[in-house]
Each structure stands twice: as C-alpha cells, then as structure tokens.
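Continuing the series of single-chain predictions for the mutant panel. This is the parent chain; the variants come on the following pages.
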Amino acid sequence: MAFRKRIKIAKGLNLNLSGSGLSMSAGVRGASATFGKNGTYMNTGIPGTGLYKRTKVSSNSNDNISSLSNNSKNQQDEINVNIRLDEKGIPVLIVEDKNGRILSDESLIRKIKKSDSYKKVVYDLTESRKNSIDEETEKFINIFKYTPEIITENIFQTELDNLKPKTYNVKKFDIIKPEIELIKSDLEIIAKKNIKKVFFWKNKKMRQDFVDENLQKTFKEKTNEWESKNKEFNENEKYTKDTKDKEYLAEYLKIKNELEKILLGDNDYIESKIESIIGEITLPVEFTLDYKYLEQNLKINLDLPEIEHMPTEKASLLSSGKISIKNKSQKELKQEYSQCVSGIAFFLAGTFYNISPKITNIIVSGYTQRLNKLNGKAEDQYIYSIKFTREIFSSLNIKAINSLEAFGNFENNLNVSTNFEFKTVNPL
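Parent structure:
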C-alpha cells in the first residue's frame, strides 16, 4: 500500500493539542537570587530566550543578609548578593558593592553563607533545578498520558441528530412612541423657563398660548421622527437577521457536512483532518510520518526520534540539602527511550481514532536509523510495529498503562531485551 504524504513534526518546548486540555512547559534551568537594599528577589528565566520573571521573596526588614552590608570594610552603605547554581548544581556566590565591583572579603562571604536567607535561597534554587531536570525527562516519557479518550459513534450521531441552525433574534425598537400628554408637559416646562414678563400676571396666559400653539405641531413632528427611526431600525434588524441567518445556515451546513463525513469515514476528509491535526501538535521530540487511509484502516510509518535526543541528566536532593546531578546510565536512557517512542504510538493512535468512528484499525510502524554491520551504512530499521484495534484501545485506561508493555494488548512485532535494547523487526 503506497503512502500518501510525509509530514514532519517539529520539536518544541511545549506539548499542546487543541481540545485535549494538554499543556506542558519545559523546565526552567536559569535561576538565581539577588539581595540588595530593597530586599531579596528570585530571578527565573529560560536561558537564550530573553524571558524571565523577577519575584520579591522578602523585604529589607526581614532580610538578614542586607544587615551584613555594614560589616564590609569595602562598602559603606549597601551590598548586592547574587546566588546561582552552576551546571553541576553547586551554588555560586557573587557579592558586589553598589557600583558593581566584586567584593572578596572572606569574612563577609562566610557570614552570608551562614545566614538563613542564603540557605533558604540555595534550597529553593536547588529544588527548582531538580524539578526542572525531572520535568525535562517527564515530558518525553509521559507523552502517552496525553492520549485523548476515544469518541464513540453514538456521540457523533447524537451531535448530528441534535444539530440545528441558529437563528437571529430580532431586537425590538425600545424608544417609546411620543404621547401628547408628555409633549404638553415638556412644552409647559419650556414655557415656564422662557416666558417671564415684567407684568407677571400675563405670564400664565402667554405660557398657555405657547403650549396651545405648539402642541399639535410638536406632537406631529415627534411622531414623524419616531416613525422614521422605528422604520429604519426595523429595516436594519431585518437586514441583520437575513445576513446572520444565512451565516448561521452556512455554519450549520458546514458542521452537518463534516459530521456526515465523520460518520461515513470519508477518505478525503480523514486524510485532510490528519494533516490539520498534525499541524496543531508540538511534541518535545522531532519525527516524521507517512500515512495512508483505506477502507477503515489507517497505516502509519513513523520515523522515530533518536535516543540521542533524550535528556541525559538526572537529579536527586541529598540529605545535606545539596543537589546531585549525574548522567543517566545507558539502561536508564534506553528504558526512557522505549517509553517515549511507544508513547508516541499511543498518542497518535488515540488522536487519529477521534477523527472518525469508522477508523477501525491503526497500524503504527516505528523505525530508526541504524548502522548496518554488513555494509557499514546507516539505514532505516523498524523497531516496532503494532496493530491497534478500536475496540481494545477504547477499553484501556491509557493514563495508567506502561506504554511499552501495553503493546501486548494488540497484535505486534516487537523484540526488546531486558536492557530495553530494540531488535530489528518487520512491519505488519
């Protein structure tokens, strides 16, 4: 079966998929603390991005490092203390005067290191570094956990059955129609305000004459104005309703057509939807895939990421409060790599199953580039091939599985040693 198209999934810092609620940020490695006249600040950021966050940890009055500034022979009023962790997790302390000159007073440095503020910040930085390293690994090995729940045919059918086009609700003209008594009252107010003769006993008659002369004319003008506005408003509302109802109908027909294609398992729709979904995925690893859909079967050839792309460091907090950063063993790397590449298969299968309930089987065959010992050349070699079935896949509690061991629920070609070494297999 010929494959239709080759698509590349770019590596990114986040793991996101529309509609799944998934969002996983990369751990922040750049972190430091600064002490000064105005208090203690924690600075965190992503090196090389220019992005950072500055958070005030304590005020000057609670910061016992700030009080040490008066003990420095090289500084009269204040010092700035910057603490960070180097690549090995060892605290690096830099003390500067207000002009940015580095202070090397050993007595001052010892007092700073004995202070509660210094110890707390070092602990916070250490914990942050450990969490950062742990999260970096977790986003690789936990890809399978973000596999969406499978949408059943009944859900799609119910959505289609309940689908109706929206209609625009015409607004009512809310300006009150002129009433002659209200206009008369308004004219009386105007007359009282403007007609004030010296001979005050004539005011009443003159005001009444003003009201009588203008009442019918004003009433007619106000009525005509109201009717004109009312007509214009209703015409605008009719135009708006016609326009909106056409838009709503077009939207309804588009959704209806899409649901019908979903329920039918239309080949062109499924292939275009695969490309659309892939364009929304950003995984922490880079890979490419070829795919072909035919008669309820989706076949995927997956060019897997290499083990060299996996995070190589692990971290642990020691009883002393310090952090131990070591390189992972080859077995640990291979085990985490096995979870990563098997997790990608589950993630893609679950995502693609939700395109249409007519997709019954999804075969994912993952391959990587290896050295052929016979000719000394690098070539593509398959390391797993699995045939997912919708019924079994839907019954799994994906978030609780071991992604590699869960291959055993399905027909598969997989040969992995106890040291998580993948042997070459043939694709299904």
